[in-house]
Amino acid sequence: MENRLKVYRAMHDLTQAELAQKLDVTRATINAIENQRYDPSLKLAFQIAIFFNVRIEDIFIFKGKEVAKQAPILRELTGSLEEKGSLEDYRDYLMKKYLSSGHDGG
């Protein structure tokens, strides 16, 4: 997954070590994320977005076709994403699908 973490870090004049300390991770973790050697957990992705006061998708760029090549089960999801247009539309589609399968959302 591509990301703009280095850009946001530079905009806030932070070193990797300073950002790592604020997020309670190692500098190596920040370095690995910035160099696309490691995709953060969902929790860490949210922490990063909240820290910079932006949406996750402002920092992390989902490339559906690339993921689908790596995991065949995601091919259907990638097609759905392309059909739905925006990530917000796709999120709404998935939520409706989830709720229609008998889950109450709670």
Q: Layout of SSEs?
A:
Layout: E1 2-3, H1 5-11, H2 16-23, H3 27-34, H4 42-52, H5 56-59, E2 60-61, H6 64-70, H7 75-84, H8 87-100
Antiparallel strand pairs: 1-2
Helix pairs in contact: 2-3, 6-7
CATH class of the largest domain: Mainly Alpha
How would you sum up the global shape?
A: elongated
Residue share in β-strands: under 5%
Characterize the main sheet: 2 strands, antiparallel
- The overall pLDDT, averaged over residues, is 80
Q: State the distance separating the first and last CA atoms.
A: 29 Å
Physical arrangement of strands within the biggest beta sheet? 1-2
CATH level-two architecture of the largest domain: Orthogonal Bundle
> N-to-C SSE series?
EHHHHHEHHH
- Write down how many β-strands occur, each being a DSSP E stretch of 2 or more residues: 2
Could you explain how this protein is built, in words?
The protein has 106 residues and is mostly helical. The protein folds into 2 domains: 2-61, lambda repressor-like DNA-binding domains (434 Repressor (Amino-terminal Domain), Orthogonal Bundle); 64-100, no CATH class. The chain contains 8 helices and 2 strands, in the order βαααααβααα. It has helices at residues 5-11, 16-23, 27-34, 42-52, 56-59, 64-70, 75-84, 87-100; strands spanning 2-3, 60-61. It has a two-stranded antiparallel sheet with strand order 1-2. The longest helix has 14 residues, at 87-100. The relative contact order is 0.11.
